[in-house]
Amino acid sequence: MNKNGFTLLELIFTIAILATVLAAAAPSFHGLMARNKVERTVTELKGLFIAAKSEAVMRNKEVYLHTVGLTDTKTYTDDWCVIATTEPTANSCTTNDNTLYIVDGHSLSGLNIKRHTDYASIKIDSMNGHPKFNAGEGIIDWLTFEKESGKAVTMKMHMFGRLYR
């Protein structure tokens, strides 16, 4: 007898094995998504910082990085932004003619995030593109964020204009 296709029993076994494999893979997929969110945040912040330094030197005008909606305590919120502007103050994430670049927390949702205690705003020098810190500080922990508890990433800023983690 020549038979083509699957029997009902073979189909049930195949679906059961596939369901078991998918159930085992789901937790690691969640971790992958969390790591990708953190990596995307790092990339966006580095891009904003590099562009702000370039704009300061190119325009020969001081540029300011403002962390709007962030405090020095870790907070789970999407209502934040880091904005690069030529204005010394920024109180909201809305853009205007002086806004150069913005990283919006709504596009990077689900992060537990905080900023440095003393640096809600950082001035970038127009001559060399270096951030201006308080006297004696060479490296600051600018932003700290995490998607999963216990896996925090800290963006460190060097006084000579390097941003790294």
From TrEMBL:
Gene Ontology BP annotations: protein secretion by the type II secretion system
Pfam families: GspH (PF12019), N_methyl (PF07963)
One CC-aspect GO term: type II protein secretion system complex
Protein name: Type II secretion system protein H
Main location: membrane
Family stated for the protein in its record: Belongs to the GSP H family.
Membrane topology listed for this record: Single-pass membrane protein
Keywords noted in UniProt: Cell inner membrane, Cell membrane, Membrane, Methylation, Transmembrane, Transmembrane helix
Superkingdom in the source lineage: Bacteria
Domain General secretion pathway GspH intervals: 42-131
Cell compartments where the protein resides: Cell inner membrane
